[in-house]
Design brief:
89% of the residues lie in helices and 0% in strands. By secondary structure, the chain is mainly alpha-helical. The termini are far apart.
């Protein structure tokens, strides 16, 4: 489940950085 959360949070963090 942790891996799934990271997969969902990763794009969100990237969008914030962009």
């Amino acid at each position: 489940m942790i891996r799934i959360q990271l997969n969902i949070n990763a794009p969100f963090i990237v969008s914030v950085l962009l």
